[in-house]
């Protein structure tokens, strides 16, 4: 059975906001919770670390071989132990694999495997260069990862402007590392400033860092945490499926809220 092959690019023009974490967790819940066929791609070509998040370290071929040396994409795709496929980039690329790349090449290669997947999620470089352009061109839609502070908001507004100029649709924002403190920007603040809906609010949680140390997405290693439920809700939205918080206390809280 062939998939619908929706390509979702995960971007931000700021390092460390959580792009790779979003990619690995979304991949995990789409595959394990919603039974989707998923490929995650490390489009952060000069500073890749998706493989480090997922424990996929030794690959005979990588995206570098696909983009620079025309190795067929299927040869570089690996199965992760988390129920979805991964296309990593080289941590130490060869000498011939460091130059500029045609930003349309990633789109071309990813298109060759679209039919094999329901979702292809592309992790992006934080730099506004050909790598981010490659992600934008390859993607059917974009998620912009941000956090509730002014410096990140400013970068987010820049990223949105670039995406709009490129005419790549933006599905929404992921507001990550939220601590529920009064000094933080609210969802409303972020939506008003950007004009883009916040699709998901993800708490700052030390279990995300712990999960990284175990090379397992937090959504799998700590499924009952708020962060994990948030990832399930986001995945459900992207897949057009129903999902409600399965934890018993959330039902009780819901009754009080009503
Ligand atoms: N919700 C969260 N709570 C706590 N820590 C988080 C959360 N999301 C991400 N992190 C941590 O923040 C750090 C940076 O995350 P990540 O590598 O995903 O960012 P990035 O945007 O991909 O960075 P880069 O631009 O350098 O590629 C990691 O240590 C990650 O575990
Ligand atoms: Mg990253």
Would you mind describing this structure in some detail?
With 258 residues, this protein is of the alpha/beta class. The protein has one domain (6-257): P-loop containing nucleotide triphosphate hydrolases (Rossmann fold), CATH 3.40.50. It is 41% helix and 17% strand. The chain contains twelve helices and eight strands. The protein has helices at residues 19-32, 50-54, 63-69, 73-76, 105-111, 130-138, 150-166, 187-194, 206-213, 218-221, 226-239, 248-257; strands spanning 6-11, 38-43, 78-79, 85-87, 119-124, 141-146, 170-178, 198-203. It has an eight-stranded mixed β-sheet with strand order 3-4-2-5-1-6-7-8, with helices on both faces. The longest helix is centred in the middle third of the chain and has 17 residues, at 150-166. It binds adenosine-5'-triphosphate (ATP) and magnesium ion. Magnesium ion is lined by residues 19-20, 44, 49, 123.
